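Holo model, nicotinamide-adenine-dinucleotide. Inputs:
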Amino acid sequence: MQRLDNVIAGKRKPSASKRTAPVFNPATGEQTAELPLSTAAELGDAVAAAKAAFATWSVTPPLRRAALMFKYRDLIEKNAARIATIISQEHGKTHSDALGEVQRGLEVIDFCCGIPHLLKGEFSRNAGPSIDTHSDRQALGVVAGITPFNFPIMVPLWMFPVAIACGNTFILKPSEKDPSASMLASELFQEAGFPDGVLSIVHGDKEVVDAILAHPDIKAVSFVGSTPIAEYVYRTGTHTGKRVQALGGAKNHMVIMPDADIDKAADALMGAGYGSAGERCMAVSVAVPVGEEPANRLVEALAPRVRALKIGPASDPDAEMGPVVTGDHLRKILSYIDSGAAQGADLVVDGRGFKLQGYEKGYFLGGTLFDKVTPQMTIYKEEIFGPVLSVVRTKSYADAVGLINANDYANGVAIFTRDGDAARDFADRIEVGMVGINVAIPVPVAYHSFGGWKRSIFGDHAIYGAEGVRFNTRLKTVTSRWPEDIKSGAVFNFPTLG
Ligand code: NAD
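Output:
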């Protein structure tokens, strides 16, 4: 069985750790690899190599850094199908879905190819008599990233290309559930010609995360994952003086106004609710129809679509949805469905009995649809992260906005309507970071930035785009006087133009 290695100072380095974790193929339930759960000492080795590399990488001209990013971008593009295959084998998502995440990650590298322009500073001539001032943004040092299972390539690509283009060196701790896409990304990174030590990979679990949070030479940490861990990483990392951006979980709503085209809204809900088996932080898990009659029509439109979902392994080109990531996660989702039924929600489509012939040991379940869910129910309050869509009926537009604004999570939200006034009002009033108007999954493009509000993010910066550049750099402002015409005699007043 394959045992994965760390990548330190540009070389694959087997971990000496005795602790390991299994990696599974979720379609078959077979173990495909063994992952070392690295030690704090191994993290220390990676930090030392990254710190050494920073000395020259941080002063490498941005144009040269961009030239390497262009090469890297081409290599990722050429290897997109290979990366997608690896993702599907460990995550379970369909091949086309995996290709989609490679593409969205690639777009972040595209953005980073423009780094010389993004790092350009500001200049003020004659800020005072013969005094000029310039400001620019400089790299932080060694930066680390901790990533979740659900986007094994896209989320790492949200982080390290931006940090590295800015002149930092980077240590990635991928999800222990599907780490192999990161390994290929790092191989291609070396092939592009980046110097050794600029990107390192250290596999592991809480032990390595805690070592990252405690290490004095790591200046910033980007985290994406569930809300409790995001909050822990933010609190612990900032306590040790690091800059931290920690993106957490979600409960994303989609409002369906009475004037919306119900068929189109139902189609959009299918992709947004059941695509990637609901394991997306931007998945819509709550449909909020406004009014009884539109709600009845929506549930009538959704039920046959959910029953007809094509579920299969990634090798089936017709599959619309694959298995969920692990057996533990499958059991957790099943218990949420049990609780929804027990707490009185109307279980319109029950995915619990689903079995796929030939894949009986895989982590498959059917699409599930609940109607008449109330905000008090556990399936509404908690993130299920599976193919389970809840319909919460509301009487009015104001009730729908009130429901969403009362929710602790605030990652993404959507409204489907033909009414421009309602759409505009919604965009203004809704307390959520990413809003879609007739767009069910409003993931911002690479030159905007991604980030929710409230308990979907901890820290002041969204990820990638201009916010990513700000997070990964610090401002320096230089004030200089040329020619030197300083008058004799000390001045004790605060300096002013006069
Ligand atoms: P997770 O929080 O379990 O794991 C994320 C990372 O944290 C992993 O690398 C893991 O090894 C590490 N980790 C886990 N437990 C830890 C602990 N006790 N101490 C320290 N580190 C720990 O998340 P997941 O299950 O891999 O991913 C799914 C979650 O991520 C969902 O909640 C989803 O909404 C969220 N997510 C959010 C975004 C976003 O942009 N907001 C994007 C993708 C996923």
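The mean pLDDT is 97. The longest strand covers residues 131-139.
Archived with the compound record.
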